[in-house]
Write a structure and sequence with these properties.
Blueprint lengths: L1 E6 L6 H13 L4 E6 L26 H10 L2 E7 L7 H9 L11 E8 L6 H17 L2 E9 L10 H8 L3
Parallel strand pairs: 1-2, 1-3, 3-4, 4-5
Helix pairs in contact: 1-5
Bound molecules: flavin mononucleotide.
The site of flavin mononucleotide has 18 residues, from helix 1 and strand 4.
């Protein structure tokens, strides 16, 4: 499979650790590309509807580049820290801009990795799970995995050997 991993974290910390564990294993049988969303030059969706959900965005920033990568992928992995009970703004920007080719983003395989400082029984993980569940239903996505991890300091997840082993065996 062609797998696109969207990294929602702006720091070299737990999300990158999770992505690296996942990608190192996944690349054995798949083509994996990781994109750091914080490095993208993307403005917010202005709701102009010029795209009609099929034509791409009128913006001349990185929007069409990243959305075309999503369209071309067999599988999209969303990996994000929790910021204020939700995914990061960087990740949400990409998801909002996916509207410009939403009609071409159906039937994807999807993976979701969420990392927050709070313990995994916190309501925040259910909120995020609910949001991705609704998007998946709308676009007929097949969610292959959705994992939540609790990690706060940037090296916390790296010390969690059980989590790292699990991330290596998600596919
Ligand atoms: C702006 C900001 C908001 C945060 N909000 C939450 C939150 O609502 N819930 C939570 O559990 N952790 C929250 N955190 C902690 C991060 O989710 C946590 O440190 C995570 O491990 C960061 O991932 P990273 O190391 O990949 O950047 C927040 C951190 C920042 C910087």
């Amino acid at each position: 499979m062609k797998i696109l991993v969207l990294n929602g974290s702006p720091r070299k910390g737990n999300t990158l650790t999770a992505i690296t564990a996942f990608a190192d294993a996944a690349q054995i049988n798949n083509e994996v590309e990781v994109v750091d969303t914080y490095k993208l030059n993307i403005g917010p969706c202005m709701g102009c509807d010029a795209c009609g959900c099929t034509n791409g965005c009128v913006a001349t920033d990185d929007t069409n580049m990243i959305i075309d990568k999503m369209v071309a992928a067999d599988m999209i992995v969303f990996a994000s820290p929790v910021y204020w009970w939700g995914i990061t703004a960087q990740m949400k920007l990409v998801i909002d801009k996916a509207y410009c080719k939403g009609a071409h983003l159906t039937n994807k395989k999807v993976g979701i990795i969420i990392i927050g400082g709070a313990s995994v029984d916190s309501e925040q993980y259910q909120l995020i799970r609910g949001q991705f569940g609704c998007i998946a239903e709308y676009l007929n996505w097949d969610i292959l995995f959705h994992r939540d991890y609790s990690a706060s300091a940037r090296d916390d997840l790296a010390k969690n050997t059980k989590a790292i082993e699990e991330l290596k065996s998600l596919l």
